[in-house]
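Please go through the protein record below and see whether the fold suits the sequence. Record follows.
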Amino acid sequence: MKLTRRTLLWSGLAAGGGLIVFTAARMLDTGGDGDARLKFAASTPEAFPINAWVKIAPDGHVTFAVHRSEMGQGITTSLPMLLAEELDADWERVSYEFAPIDKDYFNFGVMGRGRPLGEIEGRPLAALGTAVLRRMFHARGDDLTLSSTSIIDAWDSLRPAGASARLLLVAAAARRWQVPAEELRTERGHVLHPASGRSAHYGELAADASGETVAEDPRPKDPATYSIVGTSPRRLDIPEKVRGAAQFGIDVVLPDMLHGTVVHSAVAGGRIAAFDAVDAKSVPGVEAVLALGDVAVAVLARDSWTARRAAEKLRIEAVEPDRPVDSATLHAQYLAALDDPEPAVFREDGDALKALQGAAAVTTATYQWPYLAHACMEPMNCTALYADGQLTVWAPSQALTTARQVAATTAGIDPAQVRMHRTLIGGGFGRRAEMDFVERAVAAAMQVPGRAVKISYTREEDTRHDMYRPAGVSRISAAVTSSGLIQALDYRLATQSVVASFAVRTPSPRPGDARRDNTVATGVYDLIYPIPNLRVAYVPQDNHLPVGYWRSTATSYGAFCIESFMDELAHSAGLDPVAFRLANLPPDSRHRGVLQAAAERSGWGTPLAPGRGRGIALFEKARTVIAQVAEVTADAAGGFSVDRIVCVVDPGSLVHPDTVVAMMQGGIVYGLNASLYGEITVREGRVTQGNFNDLPQLAIGELPAIEVHLLPQGGRPEGVGETAVPGVAPAVANAIFAATGVRLRQLPLGRVVAA
């Protein structure tokens, strides 16, 4: 590592906008696994690559690289916005392409949201340590679209990339006109020299700029001066989607392609002992029935319908598990586990157990939640072609570098022989961070070299062989002082570890020890309410059902438990739920403003008709603070309707406000559906649900009125992809209590109320 006086000065003295990270990372990074700039340029030979994210055609049209997967969250617009802002591009003359695979497109946001050592401005050691960690992540080169990190990672990578490209264009103009670069300015895709009146659009300068170098480190603009970021320009992905030209994974069609589907063991997460394919092979149009190890059987045919009809004729013998999961007994097993004398303790402030023993009154509640499927609208699919020693894969994946590694391992070839194509994704939610559909397609393609194979799961296979959000139970006990302050809280949890389960089947840098996985208690071990005596304990559970990342994963059940319990504590203390939360929040907390705004916007405290009630939930996800108020109407038969949800969100800063609103709306619908209907049940190790006839989905007419209010309080932009999901369940449950006096502590709420 070469340290220069200039670099050390920057590392120690620079402040604002994350400049230290940019400088230190530039010093420490060792480069990609190839020339990302030239890879990006290869798809449009007429354009000139300025860097790995920007290329410019001679007519001035700018194309930006999008190095994350688009699954409806709008990053094919918001990421180019960051580049366009710093480049001073004309938004009416820009487009995007998905970036190729290269280590330069790594995601550092997954590491402590880009600030694993805390803020770096004015903190030289934190800045240097962060730069070292960036170098390590660059060396791994993981291309991940996970955990609502795309924007926060891009804030530190794309802004300097855009600023650097602008400096190169200015340098080219200065050399051409023989004037100091300081005399030039940029505006809407042009470099201007006010003193002489000369100007040139970026296309005229692109060829020269691609060969320029600049000595200074790129200094991004002051966000206060932004004119594109913070507005809501037209989304770049909409025209192709409207025309039907957008390519999702399931849209891939290649010459002489085989269409295939797969059948797994009937046991969730199970293996195949034997299979009989005689009847399947007799279906006209079937070209092959292939064993994919002992995990699945693939049927390949000239069209997908033939493959699916033939797959129904397969007779498969499953390897039976020693202890098959059964939903009828799972809850009792987990409840018993809560009394384990040696749990993993993730947090122990003060002495919660002693404080509870000495308290005058203790409130205790037990909460339960089921397994959940992802139910992506686009079923799992992948296309692979092995020919001439080269494997080409079209994958709607949230982790493309991992997909390449898994594809190479499955094929038994070097990753350098694998070419990956990124497609649009019709619903991700963490499911497409899994690699099973990539493995199936590659394993099939390797057995029919020279023929492209597209594997598509049926809805039933997709549902019964998902990697589910884990089921679980928690028991919470707390004591409150006479003034309404929480004195002590003990949180005990029994569930499966997603991190441990994921590590068994997918390459992952995270350790696979469930007892070390404090992410199972996200939102609780990092509780937003400061409590002097707080204990968070976990008893790991393990079985043959694979569990995986699900939109907000642990926060989706953690918020239900904690925010439902906050209402119970408020009730036992005789306090209004909003007033109780305010009393337990620090005076300088961002959460206070969000909570108060939600109460005001929802009309909290104003009278409602008999049988109606309001409930509130406040939480933080991906460092975004959000409050939701639900209004429900209960009927005499024990049912209820959700009439209105008011959402106030503080994501720090806004990149594309309309997208944030859309993500809140979509997340609320997703969370509401899971809260009311979402449930995967298991009988003798087999998932009982299959298609949407037994996976109920809210109809448009059943949706409540949804109001979203943006309350950005400044700072770095934070994640919004998963943020709106967790608070829906506790807000609705709390509203039901307000309307009926009945506490619901078990998800899904719709099934419980109906009973």
